[in-house]
Design brief:
Elements (H helix, E strand, L loop, with lengths): L16 H8 L4 E2 L1 E6 L5 E6 L2 E5 L4 E7 L5 H7 L1 E6 L5 H6 L14 E2 L5 E2 L5 E13 L2 E13 L7 E3 L2 E3 L7
Antiparallel strand pairs: 1-11, 2-3, 2-6, 4-5, 5-10, 6-9, 7-8, 9-10, 11-12
């Protein structure tokens, strides 16, 4: 049987980053692909699990993106983004939007709505957002977006991430 780990964190880099990552990994998150448009209308996308609702009135949601992400400049310049919530059968799509090289949109037909940000097909939910507020927090940039259009289809099992792996949700029969 494993033993719980307790670590007191110091200032700056004095803490154990691996332990912190492991502890954060104990929290199950959904898996999303954040999409936007870059220079010349180029489609930009990345897999992210740092997504949450902020407010119902006004309708706000936020995503956090690593400051080293190649998608950061497009997110900053565009002023818009879409959060595409993936379902369990879209694990390959999640992996495709993590790849370092190549066209992350290869083989994926997207649609556009109000802002022109790419909308991924067949997702569990899509939230089209106009950037409302942006700020840096540690090694990530936080984008708060005002939701301007959404679509959802709850008849799917969500794709979740826990302890460094994609997982499925176990739901007891009603």
């Amino acid at each position: 049987m494993s033993q719980a780990v307790t670590i007191e964190l110091g200032e700056g880099a004095a803490h154990d980053a691996r332990a912190l990552r492991s502890a954060f990994g104990c929290f199950t998150t959904g898996v999303t692909v954040i999409t936007t448009t870059g220079e010349g209308g180029r489609r930009v996308g990345l897999t992210a699990n740092s997504f949450t609702s902020v407010s119902l009135d006004p309708p706000l949601a936020l995503v956090c993106v690593d400051l080293n992400s190649r998608s950061l400049s497009a997110l900053d310049a565009g002023g818009l983004f879409t959060v595409n919530v993936l379902h369990a059968d879209q694990q390959a799509m999640a992996r495709q939007f993590v790849q370092k090289d190549g066209d992350r949109f290869a083989g994926i037909d997207t649609e556009t709505w109000i802002t022109g940000a790419p909308i991924l097909p067949g997702c569990m939910a899509n939230f089209e957002c106009v950037t409302h507020h942006v700020f840096d927090a540690g090694d990530h940039r936080v984008y708060v977006g005002r939701v301007v259009k959404l679509r959802y289809d709850p008849d799917h099992e969500p794709l979740v991430y826990l302890q460094g792996r994609f997982r499925r949700v176990h739901v007891d029969a009603a």
